[in-house]
């Protein structure tokens, strides 16, 4: 049994707007042909045999936010091998402002499948960024176990994706920064080109780079607060950002950091030209994660400890989103519960119920969810 006292001891932010999925309709999406079902706002336990479509279902929901979904799949992989129609995911949402219909699918005008079609309330939307205004999302999957163990690039990209749901403008900043960086490298490769144009690109990298660092710091602060507020069996993580602008923002005005970045990028031109990479900037930062109780860097922790740290960080992230955006994110947990002992499983369920979010939890065995099932809906694939 879950502890009812604890369920009420964790206050979710009362002012947060509730957001939940009401109806899911899938067409020619992976192993689904035509499939439609309704759900209530409470958490959903999805069980079924291996290969029955649990992760595919969560993946479909994960396309409600910008990006490539929780598998980071190519769009061509989403198309059912067995159905000729174009793949489509249509989801009716329940929001504080009334129902909202979000549709996404294969775009007949993109023969190379490079972009998906996005409809919000029947209107075709250019780009995907607008999705982030309506839905926030957090997910945790078995593949994320290695994020804490891998290199800076993997961790930074994951952290930037966390910032996207937190601060919808962040995706645009990253795209502008990367475009300027690519153009600068191209100019350098072609023999330095026009010095004025190079300076303009470095200026864009410096300004956007500082904005990126500031957005990352903002999420980091909120995560730290949320981690400190959370009591329970999951280990606390100490988080820090390592990077020129991220660290300098502690005690240096943003404009001076931009000047410094511009200067360093200018001075690095001939080295960068030789290496074909850009040695400094926002794309070099890292997220440092330390297991607080053990004072041990996450990459040196055991697999189980890394998994527990990841769950703790994602629970803190859900709290941080609720606080920042005053809206509840959808929370997708793919195949997580089976790997937790009874105490941790109960703690996770209690936290999910207390947060009041619509959590989608998958597993092969309904018994693993016995203690949350009285408070949840059960969907079998
Ligand atoms: N494009 C596609 N067309 C048809 N079937 C696909 C496509 N992509 C994946 N599948 C199939 O969908 C099935 C379900 O996959 P999914 O990963 O959702 O299973 P699961 O229920 O999460 O299984 P597990 O318990 O092993 O994690 C798999 O058999 C897979 O081969
Ligand atoms: Mg799966």
User: Taking all residues together, what is the mean pLDDT?
Assistant: 92
Alpha-beta content class: alpha/beta
Total strand segments: 14
Largest sheet: number of strands, sense, barrel closure: 6 strands, antiparallel
Q: In the CATH hierarchy, what is the superfamily of the domain at 1-136 and 335-381?
A: P-loop containing nucleotide triphosphate hydrolases
Q: Spans of 5+ residues with little confidence (pLDDT < 50)?
A: 7-13
What ligands can be seen in this structure? adenosine-5'-triphosphate, magnesium ion
Approximate helicity band = 40-55%
Strand order of the largest sheet: 2-1-4-5-6-7
Q: Topology, pairings included?
A:
Layout: H1 4-9, E1 19-29, E2 32-38, E3 44-47, H2 54-62, H3 75-78, E4 88-95, E5 98-106, E6 116-120, E7 123-125, H4 131-134, E8 137-140, H5 152-166, H6 170-189, H7 195-229, E9 237-242, H8 244-248, H9 254-267, H10 269-275, E10 286-291, E11 296-297, H11 303-325, E12 330-333, H12 342-355, E13 359-363, E14 377-380
Parallel strand pairs: 3-13, 3-14, 8-12, 12-13
Antiparallel strand pairs: 1-2, 1-4, 4-5, 5-6, 6-7, 9-10, 10-11
Helix pairs in contact: 6-7, 7-9, 7-11, 11-12
The protein binds adenosine-5'-triphosphate (ATP) and magnesium ion.
